[in-house]
Amino acid sequence: MPDLELLARAPAQQNGHAVVKKQAEWSVPISLLAAPPPAGMRATLARITGTQPSTSLPVINLGLGDPTLYPLHPPPPAATEALARAAEEGRNGYLFGSGMPEAREAVAAYHKRWDGVEYDVEDIVLTHGVSHALDMVLSVLVPPGSDSSVLVPRPGFGLYSALLGTLGTEIRYYDCVEQRGWEVDLEDMEAMVDVGTRCIILTNPSNPCGSNYAPSFLHAVIALAERHRLPIIADEIYGHMTFSAPFVPLASLSTSVPVLTLSGLSKRFLLPGRRFGWVALHDPAGRAGAVRAGLHTWANRFFGPSSVDQHALPAILLDTPDSWFADVVKKVQRNAEITYDVVIATPGLSCVRPEGALYVFVKIDMTRFPAFGGDDTAWCAALYKEEAVFLMPGALFGTPGYVRIVIGVPQDLMREVGARVARFCARYYQV
Ligand SMILES: *Cc1c(COP(=O)(O)O)cnc(C)c1O
After folding, report:
1. Strands 170-177 and 359-364: what pairing?
2. Is the peptide bond before 208 cis (omega within 30 degrees of 0)?
C-alpha cells in the first residue's frame, strides 16, 4: 500500500517548489448543498445592470417585488405600535420552534376571518417568511435525491426551483397559459404526474403573472390532486390582493385533499423585512397526520421567528382594519390600470388584464424589436441603459419574451415607468 501522503506531495517536490508553500495551499471543501447556484440568474442580472445608464434620469429599480422600496403605503399602524410595544416590554425570550400558541391562534383566527377555513393551533407553524415556509414544507414532503418529482408553475417564482434544485428532486414545470388568464391546461398537468410525484405547488394570486384563479379552476386542480393522492402547496402570500374578483383560498374548497397554505407579512401587510410567515395545514380527511408531525419536527430544529414579532402578531393580524387593506389594494389596482393602459397603447407590448398581486406580466412581441435578436434580456438591458428602468425579463421566470413590471409603487412613479417604457418601445418598434 503506497503512502498516500507522500504520493500527494510528490509533484511539489519534483518541480522544486517549496513543499511548505504547497502545503499551505489548501482550502476547506463544502457540501454540494452550498454550491453556488447555476450562473443563469446572476449572469442575466449582470447583463442588464452591467452597463451604467447613459441618461441622467434617476434609476428606477423594479427588480424586486418589495412594496417598501418606493413606499406604496405606510405599514399598518397596528403593526407599528404592537411591534414597538413588544420591544419595549422586553419580549425577548426563547419561544418554541413552531411558535407560541397565542401567535398561532392569531394566524388561525386570521384565516378563519378572511378565508373561512378553520385551523387548530397544531395546524399552524410559524416561519421566517414564506421562503422559510417553502424550505420547510418541501423538506418535509420531498425525500432528497430520490426518484421524486414536484410540479411547479411556469412562469413562476424562482425560489421554488432553487430550493428543489438542492433537494435533488425532479422539477416538472407546468405551463400557465396567458390566453386563459394564466390558468393551466390540466390535461398537460395530469400527464406530468407519476408515482414519484410528491406535491403540486400552486401560486395564487401569481408572481409574476398577476393572475387570480377562478373557483372552477381551483376545484379542477383539487380534483386532479385527489385522483393522484397529492397534497397541494398553496403559496398565497398575495391572498386577498385582487382587483375585479374576490380571492378564493384553495383550502376553502378542499374537502379531502391536504392543502398547505403559505402566507405571511411580506406582501399584504407591506412588511417584507420582518421575515415573518407561516404554514397552515388544512387536512379535512385526516390524511396528513405525518405531515403535521413532520412540520413540527422540522420547525423545532431551531427556535422559530422573532419573539418580538410573535408577541405583536395578534395585533398585526387582527387589529388591522379592513379599510387599511382596501386602501392598499385600491392603490395597487390603480397602478395596474395605469400600466395596463400603457401596455395596450404601446405597439409591440400586450398583456391580459391584471387581476391581483403586485405585478403586470407583459408580453414583448420580440419580432417587432429586431434590434434585440429575440432576446428579452437584451431588451431589458437597453431599457436600463437608455431609460434607467430596471425590470426583470421573462427569462428569469422560465418564459422568455416577457417582462415583469412591479406595481407596488407610488402612483407618480408608476406613471413615470409607463412613460419611459412607452418611449423606449417607440424608439425600437419596427412595423
Ligand atoms: C414575495 C413572495 C413570497 C414571500 O416570501 P417571504 O420570504 O415571505 O418574503 C413568497 N412567494 C412568492 C410567490 C412571492 O412573490
Report:
1. unpaired
2. yes
Distance CA 243, CA 394 (A): 23
Q: How many CB atoms lie within 10 A of CB 363?
A: 18
CA distances in angstroms from 274 to 31, 40, 63, 264, listed in the order given: 29, 29, 20, 10
Q: Peptide bond preceding 74: is omega within 30 degrees of 0, i.e. cis?
A: no
Alpha-carbon distances, residue 52 vs 349, 381, 416, 428 (angstroms): 25, 10, 20, 20
Average pLDDT by stretches of 10, the chain with 431 residues: 40 48 81 79 90 95 96 98 98 94 98 98 98 97 88 96 91 97 96 97 98 98 98 98 98 98 98 98 98 97 94 98 98 98 98 98 98 97 98 96 98 98 98 91
- Distance between CA atoms of 87 and 99, rounded to whole angstroms? 17
Residue 280 to residue 50: CA distance in whole angstroms: 41
Rounded to the nearest angstrom, the distance between the alpha carbon of 100 and the centre of ligand 1 is: 23
pTM value is: 0.93
Q: How far is CA 198 from the centre of its chain?
A: 20
Q: How far apart are CA 116 and CA 253, in angstroms?
A: 10
- Sign (positive or negative) of CA dihedral 359, 246, 71, 58: positive
- The one-character DSSP state at 357 is T
Span from the CA of 230 to the centroid of ligand 1 (angstroms): 23
Whether residue 248 contacts residue 218, with contact meaning beta carbons closer than 8 Å, is answered with yes
Report yes or no: 81 and 87 within 8 Å, Cβ to Cβ. Answer: no
> Is 65 close to ligand 1, i.e. is its CB under 6 Å away?
yes
Distance CA 417, CA 412 (A): 9
From residue 172, how far is each of 159, 164, 191 by CA, in Å? 14, 11, 11
Phi, psi of 236 (to 5 degrees): -115, 40
- What are the angstrom distances between the C-alpha of 149 and each of 161, 180, 317? 12, 26, 35
Ligand 1 neighbour 130 (Cβ under 6 A)? yes
How many contiguous H segments (helices) and E segments (strands) does the chain have? 14, 13
- Please report where in the chains the cell 417587432 appears, as a residue: 368
Angle of the 129-141 helix axis to the 158-167 helix axis, nearest 10: 40
Q: CA 245, 246, 251, 255 torsion: positive or negative?
A: negative
Q: In DSSP terms, which residues pair with 364 in a beta bridge?
A: 349
What is the pLDDT at residue 35?
A: 80
Please tell me the distance between residue 371's alpha carbon and the centre of ligand 1 in angstroms. Answer: 34
Q: How far apart are CA 190 and CA 213, in angstroms?
A: 18
- Does residue 211's CB lie within 6 angstroms of at least one atom of ligand 1? no
